[in-house]
Specification:
The protein is α/β, with parallel strands linked by helices. The protein contains 25 helices and 16 strands.
Length: 707
């Protein structure tokens, strides 16, 4: 606002008193209005020889009208008498003044006296009416409180008797609080005889049954204000059955003030505080775990001091909705600017996951050295997290399974993930792991149990692999049957004991909306961390690194790409080599059965392939049976001793070490078709020059020195 405009507005405000012509009369203005009106009427009537009876009639009509109006709004008798008397006295003075003259000192003095009396009487009646109204409101509130008190007393008496009968515990109810949502209430209990809250918590199921609570409702005990008090939360309305839409408020969040993940049965938002804690989310198929994961990513995207890295080896499906629309340019901000992805880095392959984990470890270790001065100035051993130095949240879908996997590649990832969890808490790098179940193998790792204090168990009614006792140790009375609905389960944090909750339902269009709304809110990785991460982080969105996201063709392990030149086409059996494992289920089962037999017994090798190629069968002239001459010659050479490029391929496989190489990687290395490479590598394995390690889509060839 300009200075001129501000000055003009100030002049307008200070130009004089502001009169509210719509306001009613008070005691002073009412008395002035009555006396001036009476004086004007008396003066005019005396000058025009008006009959005095008209004034009396008008005064009587005014008194009658105000009395009727007062009765309709239930004014007190004192107020009705005051107003009627004011009309009658004013009419009487006007009649007298018209007869004797209104300009005498006696007339003016009596009029002033009447005005003062009217003002005092009006003020007195107004105060009386206010007192009556306040008393009526107080009486109504007392009646409501009395009714509520009676309801609370009935609830308290019922639960005292119930706990005594079922738990054999005497309790005293100190307070009963009704939830604002109307879905239940809480009782503040004081158990007698040194009984603690966990004794009552163990009887949650029989207490709920005895109270005849609806399905999905529970009576859950939790610690009170001190060890001798217990809070019993009783849910009376099943709020877990219906979907709970994600809030439309996409406002700013901070990892320091909590990230909302869902709501409790009493309507309270439950938040996760992840500055120092890691999180573990478990849920079987169909329990709503993926939706929950999107809700977690939404809370991370809304935070202005947090960057999200996602590892999902299942084709990156957890992070693609947050990345693809932005990479394709489908989203724009309000000022038509490009939108940044909702996830700062997405790894959908083993190689990209290794790059990400190496970069994260490098960032954390470099932060420890580079920010020593900052830690000293802040007098803390925790890196001050802000928009300038954001926290990194590493989200790993099915990461708990990676930690317990016996696969060699997964073991390498697991080692690095545990290093991140163990070493980088102070430097603002934390993890969120998901798992398909709360089993002993998942929770057997001490690092997960010690660091992952924020835990979520989405049950979906599934009882297999859902050991809530291991998931929430020390929390009694939790049963899978209490949350049989998708998106419902239990959530516990160091700040909030494990209890029922409902995850928000987030839709794909909301993911796009949040991506747009938070695009300019995402912080940039600080220079110190970006330098430590190096090109692996700086080039994470390069075309060659994101090709797997945007390429809609079949992957290397799909059957259609086994055709020459790697082109898609019909899924012909002629194009499916035996080692690919992509035949029919019966063929796959037979192949595995033969491998087990070969491993258990010294069976004879199968007859070698004759040198002369078999005659072409009759029938369709399929292009799948017409390989180019070079590939045919190389395949034949592979059976005889190997083509010229096989030596280079064996050297490359040896350099790869125990990891080995896929046939597709070898084909790219030697610039040959995948079919020819597979034939040559298979022949080399039969000769003992290589070892074939069958691992489904991750099958590789390994040099004998590393087998």
């Amino acid at each position: 606002m300009s200075t001129t405009t501000a000055t003009s507005k100030k002049q307008q405000v200070s130009s004089g008193p502001v009169l509210d012509w719509a306001a009613g009369h008070g005691p002073v203005t009412g008395a002035l209005s009555a006396t001036t009106g009476a004086f004007a009427l008396a003066t005019t009537g005396a000058a025009t020889a008006m009959p005095p009876g008209w004034v009396l009639a008008a005064g009587a009509a005014g008194a009658l009208g105000h009395t009727v109006a007062g009765l309709r709004i239930r004014n007190a008798g004192r107020t009705l008498a005051t107003r009627a008397a004011s009309w009658l006295v004013g009419a009487g003075w006007t009649t007298w003044a018209m007869t004797t003259g209104p300009l005498t000192w006696a007339a003016l003095g009596s009029l002033a006296t009447i005005g003062i009396g009217i003002g005092a009487a009006a003020r007195s009646s107004a105060l009386y009416e206010e007192a009556r109204e306040e008393e009526a409101i107080a009486a109504e509130q007392r009646a409501i409180a009395l009714e509520l008190s009676a309801e609370r007393r009935a609830i308290a008496e019922a639960w005292v008797e119930r706990i005594q009968r079922i738990c054999s515990i005497s309790v005293r109810v100190l307070a009963v609080e009704m939830w604002p949502t109307g879905t239940g209430y809480s009782l503040d209990l004081e158990p007698q005889g040194g009984i603690t809250w966990d004794r009552i918590a163990g009887y949650s199921v029989p207490l709920s049954g005895d109270a005849k609570l609806p399905h999905g409702c529970t009576a859950t005990a939790s610690p009170g204000i001190h060890q001798g008090r217990t809070i019993l939360d009783v849910t009376t309305v099943n709020v877990l059955k219906e979907d709970c839409p994600y809030p439309e408020d996409y406002g700013r969040l901070s990892v320091l003030t909590g990230l909302p993940w869902g709501v409790r049965t009493n309507g309270e938002v439950v938040s996760a505080y992840l500055r120092e804690q890691c999180a573990l989310v478990v849920g079987p198929t169909g329990s709503g775990k993926t939706n929950m994961l999107h809700g977690i990513l939404a809370s991370f995207a809304r935070a202005d001091d947090l960057l999200t890295f996602v590892i999902d080896l299942n084709a990156g499906s957890a992070g693609l909705p947050w990345v693809l629309p932005a990479l394709k340019g489908e989203l724009k901000t309000e000022d038509n600017k490009p939108v940044r992805p909702g996830v700062d880095w997405l790894a959908g392959t083993y190689e990209e996951a290794l790059l990400m984990l190496d970069a994260v470890l490098a960032i954390g270790l470099h932060r420890k050295k580079a920010y020593q001065d900052l830690l000293s100035k802040a007098n803390t051993d925790l890196l001050p997290i802000s928009a300038k130095i954001p926290q990194i949240m590493l989200v790993i879908d099915e990461g708990a399974e990676i930690l317990v996997s016996t696969d060699r590649q997964m073991k390498e990832l697991a080692k690095k993930i545990l290093e991140v969890i163990r070493m980088l808490r102070a430097m603002g790098i934390r993890t969120v792991l998901t798992a398909l179940g709360a089993t002993g193998s998942v929770l057997g790792n001490l690092m997960i149990r010690r660091e992952g204090k924020v835990r979520v168990a989405l049950t979906g009614g599934e009882t297999e692999g859902m050991d809530l006792g291991k998931m929430f140790p020390g929390r009694r009375g939790l049963r899978v049957e209490q949350a049989p609905y998708k998106g419902a389960g239990f959530m516990g944090t160091p700040e909030s004991p494990a209890a029922l909750f409902k995850a928000w339902r987030i839709l794909p269009n909301q993911i796009r909306e949040i991506t747009v709304a938070t695009s300019e809110r995402h912080p940039r990785l600080d220079d110190v961390s970006a330098k430590a991460a190096g090109p692996a982080y700086a080039r994470r969105w390069d075309a060659n690194r994101t090709a797997w996201m945007l390429d809609l063709t079949l992957t290397d392990d799909d059957p259609a790409e086994e055709s020459p030149a790697g082109q898609g086409g019909l899924n012909l059996s002629a194009l499916r080599p035996a080692e690919s494992g992509q035949g029919s289920p019966e063929d796959e089962m037979l192949r595995r059965f033969r491998q087990e037999i070969d491993a258990q017994f010294a069976t004879a090798p199968e007859p070698s392939t004759p040198d002369t190629p078999p005659a072409r069968p009759g029938g369709l002239n399929l292009s799948a049976l017409r390989g180019d001459s070079r590939d045919a010659e190389e395949a034949t050479a592979g059976r005889e001793g190997g083509p010229d490029w096989l030596a280079d391929a064996i050297v490359a496989i040896a350099e790869a070490g125990p990891t080995g190489m896929k046939p597709s990687a070898v084909a790219d290395r030697v610039n040959r078709s995948r079919q020819a490479v597979r034939e040559a590598l298979k022949a080399a394995a039969e000769r003992g020059e290589l070892v074939y390690r069958d691992n489904g889509p991750h099958s590789v060839y390994v040099h004998p020195d590393h087998a």
